[in-house]
Amino acid sequence: MALIIDLKPGEKILIGDAVITNDQQRTRLHISGDSPILREKDVMKEEEADTPCKKIYFLVQCMYLARAPRIYFDKYFGLVKEIQDAAPSVTLFIMKINDMIIEGLYYKALKEARELLDHEAELLENVKKQYSRQEQIGAE
């Protein structure tokens, strides 16, 4: 069964190691095969991986797109250990991602890593709120 993707004008998509850019009209693609496929909105550039969980997402993305994903395992599992030690609340997300990586289900692991990014954003927002409250109390 083919994957059907609708592309907006100018939208990019990665198929394997090729970047495809849509022209000026909406386009519908029917794609068959086992090549990794990522929409532009789901691609994270290395310089955008500026938080621990974004680095996890980036490494899982690299695994998904790589012909030899295991080359990223040492870096990934080392980073995972550091993050879990610092923020135990990520453990359930990490366990799901790890299970999918071990099974070779890199796209599913990437989707779960997106959930991890949402959790991290929530944690960072909570820290900002607490910091703002402490500043207000200190100013009184």
Mind explaining what this structure looks like?
The chain has 140 residues and is of the alpha+beta class. The chain has two domains: 1-43, no CATH class; 44-140, no CATH class. It contains four helices and five strands, in the order βββββαααα. The protein has helices at 52-65, 73-86, 91-102, 106-139; strands spanning 3-7, 12-15, 18-21, 27-31, 37-39. The strands form two sheets. It has a three-stranded antiparallel β-sheet with strand order 3-2-5, with no helix packed on it. A hairpin with a 2-residue loop joins strand 2 (12-15) and strand 3. The longest helix has 34 residues, at 106-139. The mean pLDDT is 92.
Oligomer: single chain
Question: What count of structural domains?
Answer: 2
What amount of the residues lies in strands?
A: 15-25%
- Give the N-to-C terminal Cα separation: 64 Å
Any idea what the shape is? globular
Number of strand segments: 5
Number of helices: 4
How is the largest sheet built, in terms of strand order?
A: 3-2-5
The Cα radius of gyration reads 18 Å
- Whole-number average pLDDT? 92
Which structural category fits the helices and strands?
Answer: alpha+beta
Fraction of residues in helices?
40-55%
Low-confidence parts: none
Strand and helix order: EEEEEHHHH
* Main sheet: strands, sense, barrel: 3 strands, antiparallel
